[in-house]
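Troubleshooting log. The previous structure file for this entry was overwritten by mistake, so regenerating from the original sequence record. Sequence copied from the archived sheet and checked twice against the printout by T.R.
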Amino acid sequence: MVPRGDRTKTQKPKVDNVAALDLLTVDEVASTLRTSRKAVYHRIARGQIPAVRLGRSVFIRRSDLANCLIAGGWNDG
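Regenerated output below.
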């Protein structure tokens, strides 16, 4: 291990944040579902797709999206 004072800027400590990799943007979800961003936001507003808000940004957990699709999808009625 390199002492803290001897680290260069390129030797940052490793952080394994798997949870951050599990979040999808609205654009990524729209692309995956082959639909528009507006349709994804509409489904989020109706509670059909669970979303997480971080500041002004909206993210969807990959596992939540998979559960929505596996559970039989959603009703457009």
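The two ends are 59 Å apart (CA to CA). Archived copy saved in two places this time.
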